[in-house]
Amino acid sequence: LVSREFKSTDTVIDIAGVPLGGKTVQIISGPCSVESQEQMDLSAKAVHEAGCRLMRGGAFKPRTSPYAFQGLGDIGLDYFKNAASKYNLPVVTELMDVRKIDLFLEKGVDVIQIGTRNMQNFDLLKEVGRLDVPVILKRGMSATIKDWLMAAEYIAAQGNQRIIFAERGIRTFETQYRNVLDVTAIPVLKKETHLPVIIDPSHAGGKAWLVPALSRAAVAVGADGLLIETHPCPSEAWCDADQALNPQQLKDLMQDLAGIAHIL
Ligand code: PEP
Ligand code: MN
């Protein structure tokens, strides 16, 4: 269902009135995690003022250590929706547990993100496949393109075909940066699937200074969008502080990208 053989033309996914896919590039930005109402208000303002039309932010965080901040949980979704709705920004947030699906629907989450660690959580994939909500499916950090396409097929086979692939870097022997952004995956995936493909340069590079270069690379290889972490004050971020852009850096990046891509 996700294959080009099934459908030859590019699919454009409508996210509460914002198109993703086709001839334009859509930038999704916001903090790694929801921390407070004030932090989300400042983030939403920055995302809006930079010209982005979609916002990200995690209320449920898949952390390596069980002792690290796990996200604010349910109340985090309220802070996020409150802030984003002031600027009409649809929200993207990660779902880790099928038991939170009703909450996500009740709160009006616009796009469900499946993180790298859950790419092959097949029960979770099947459940989001039954929903009428777009899904961002991140690539497993050690997943092949075939694994990734098949994971998407699990969602699509249940009826939900509004799937967006997100390349966020893969694990290799390199230790100098967080992950290796697989730029080759973009044209390969665009050939294999009719669905939109976006890049997350923040989790790929793991450093704010790498984000502009990786973003330009993403656009150059044909990505349909970018998922970028921003924070009103990156040094104070509770999660992924090193890779967050500040509001001015996000604005500068958006202007830079406008020169090389059609940002809608
Ligand atoms: C995130 O987007 O904050 C995240 C945890 O990403 P990933 O699943 O790619 O590590
Ligand atoms: Mn993060």
UniProtKB/TrEMBL annotation:
Residues 22-253 form the DAHP synthetase I/KDSA domain. One of its GO terms (molecular function) is 3-deoxy-7-phosphoheptulonate synthase activity. Its EC number is 2.5.1.54. Keywords: Transferase. This is 3-deoxy-7-phosphoheptulonate synthase. It comes from Thermithiobacillus plumbiphilus. The chain holds residues 71 to 334 of 338 of the full protein.
